[in-house]
Design brief:
Elements (H helix, E strand, L loop, with lengths): L9 H6 L1 H12 L7 E5 L5 H9 L4 E6 L2 H13 L5 E5 L2 H8 L5 E7 L17 H10 E11 L2 H12 L4 E4 L17 H8 L5 E7 L36
Parallel strand pairs: 1-2, 1-4, 2-3, 4-5
Antiparallel strand pairs: 5-7, 6-7
Helix pairs in contact: 2-5
């Protein structure tokens, strides 16, 4: 891959040096030919593997911050012969600027991100104006951002951030940009469990407008979320069992 010449802020360059170097080394050893689709927060990779089987003419990349999940997933991708899929242990806020030029990524999927339920943890939530700006930079003009969550207040916050941004246009079901192939997408373990319980899943699709916008002054609500009634298997074994 062509590593991008990016300089981060001083604190990131100083305290994240090892992680930045690891991402650069990973990218220098790999190629992602053809259109690229990315899943951020690939967890154990059920969706990623299904995506690789569905789009054999695409390269699919899972970016997951938990290294133990990536190690197991990488082995499974090799064992199953999914040569068009790869997994990277990294923070997407660091990996995307280094690995991808602007206007090059076909799709970005973010499925059931951790809502960080408590108010004091809200600052750890993934979606911020800055993060959405980064995604808008990397997607192609005809690219698509796919977000799913089972937490209604989180869906409302993300929708509001997108709606108040000049950089995004939400795609609605009657829109020509609505993905015709969405019914073919694999389900994450989390989504399958939610649907079996008859609980709702909120879907947010958006495309970049190509506009620029300052993020100063845009605020993200820091409310506490109530947990939906869906349990997660936390039993231990060789394969990490925390599932989304």
């Amino acid at each position: 891959m062509d590593i991008q010449d990016v300089t981060f802020d001083e604190a990131t360059e100083t305290y994240q040096r090892a992680r930045l170097d690891a991402i650069r080394a990973w990218g220098a050893e790999r190629q992602l030919p053809g259109p690229v689709q990315i899943e951020i927060g690939s967890n154990q990779g059920r969706f990623l593997k299904g995506l690789a089987r569905l789009y054999t003419d695409r390269s699919v990349l899972g970016i997951e911050i938990r290294r133990r999940f990536v190690e197991v997933l990488s082995e499974e991708l090799t064992d199953e012969g999914l040569t068009n899929a790869q997994a990277l242990a990294a923070d997407a806020n660091l990996a995307l600027p280094l690995l991808f030029a602007d206007n090059t990524v076909e799709r970005i999927y973010i499925l059931f991100p951790d809502p960080w339920w408590k108010k004091r943890h809200a600052k750890r939530r993934l979606f911020t104006p800055e993060f959405l700006g980064l995604l808008a930079n990397k997607l192609r003009p005809d690219g698509l951002l796919v977000i799913k969550t089972d937490v209604e207040p989180y869906a409302e916050i993300v929708s509001e951030l997108i709606d108040q941004s000049q950089r995004w246009r939400r795609v609605m079901p009657d829109d020509p940009a609505w993905p015709e192939d969405e019914d073919q997408w694999p389900k994450t373990t989390r989504e399958g469990k939610i649907l079996r319980k008859g609980l709702p899943v909120w879907k947010i699709y958006a495309e970049p407008t190509g506009e620029l916008q300052e993020v100063d002054g845009l605020e993200v609500p820091m409310e506490r979320f109530a947990k939906p009634e869906v349990t997660i298997d936390r039993s231990r074994g060789r394969r990490p069992r925390l599932r989304k």
